[in-house]
Write a structure and sequence with these properties.
Elements: E1 2-5, H1 16-29, E2 33-36, H2 47-57, E3 62-65, H3 76-89, E4 94-98, H4 104-110, H5 117-134, E5 142-146, H6 150-159, E6 162-165, H7 173-186, E7 194-201, H8 207-218, H9 225-231, H10 237-249, E8 254-259, H11 265-274
Parallel strand pairs: 1-8, 2-3, 3-4, 4-5, 5-6, 6-7, 7-8
Helix pairs in contact: 1-2, 2-3, 3-5, 6-7, 10-11
């Protein structure tokens, strides 16, 4: 199982220079990949633009959007060109992870209807592939889809190369992995899905404050879900190692840790916990 470390692009107030410094530090520490979360009605950095910076500052690190709110982002032709351009500029290191999201405010900010976002995602995937076939030559990025509902998992099985499991579920990862594999079999897919999972973390003496600040901002106005998200965030090395073991045993292909703190020491703290 590969281990990744995401960029702190949604940590409140993080400066761009910090993100630029994180990317080579993540690569140097030995992580296999990095990722960027997506929101629109939130003061975060755009995932595609941020990962273009990562492509320029690294040579080995894989990059994933986990997960881009693609149905809220306008015409498929524009996203197709952006994703293909990033994939080519990154030398094939980019994976396009997408999800429909659960916050109406992100769609309101984009002026896009919220209610039919699942159907639009399905049309969008077909349009992306069509644009890639008729565009400049080159290998398009692999497609991953996120979402925990049965409909989302089956959509991934029918239309994508793999499935992203979010980082705040109450269910054990073994159950999620089995759902994905069963959906793949039910859809008649040959071979297993690529399984990617996220977990939020912060380590060190300021961990609890960082978790409350970042999760409180990112999951604001989500009611009781906020408490669940905070409770599921990892804040000590032993818990991090236990989660790694759980995901490895369940056959996860890549586990990406998403930071709640932008402090530079988080890279080495996590590396010491899981890579040493």
């Amino acid at each position: 199982m590969d281990l990744g470390l995401g960029l702190p692009a949604v940590v409140p107030g993080v400066p761009a220079s910090t993100l630029a410094d994180w990317a080579p530090a993540v690569e140097a520490a030995g992580f296999a990949g990095t990722a960027v979360l997506d929101r629109i009605a939130y003061p975060s950095y755009d995932p595609l633009v941020t990962l273009a910076m990562v492509a320029a500052r690294t040579t080995r690190l894989r990059m994933t959007t986990t997960a881009l709110l693609a149905p809220a982002r306008g015409p498929a032709a524009v996203l197709a060109k952006q994703a293909m351009s990033l994939s080519q500029l990154a030398g094939g290191r980019f994976t396009l992870g997408m999800a429909i999201g659960a916050r109406p405010e992100d769609y309101q900010a984009s002026g896009v209807p919220f209610g039919d976002r699942g159907r639009r995602m399905e049309r969008l995937i077909g349009e992306l592939r069509s644009n890639w076939r008729s565009g400049p030559p080159g290998e398009p990025p692999a497609l991953l889809l996120g979402g925990h509902s049965d409909r989302a998992v089956h959509r991934a099985a029918r239309l994508a190369d793999g499935w992203i499991c979010g980082g705040t579920s109450r269910q054990g990862y073994h159950e999620h992995a089995e759902r994905a594999r069963k959906a793949w079999a039910d859809a008649g897919r040959s071979g297993p899905p690529r399984l990617v999972a996220l977990r939020f973390f912060a380590l060190g003496p300021e961990a609890d404050d960082s978790v409350r600040a970042t999760m409180g901002a990112f999951y604001a106005n989500t009611g009781p879900y906020l408490a669940q998200a905070i409770a599921g965030t990892l804040s000590d090395p032993a818990a991090v190692r236990a989660v790694v073991a759980e995901h490895r045993d369940a056959g996860c292909d890549e586990l990406i840790f998403m930071p709640c703190s932008a402090a530079p020491d988080q890279v080495n703290r996590l590396a010491d916990a899981v890579l040493a």
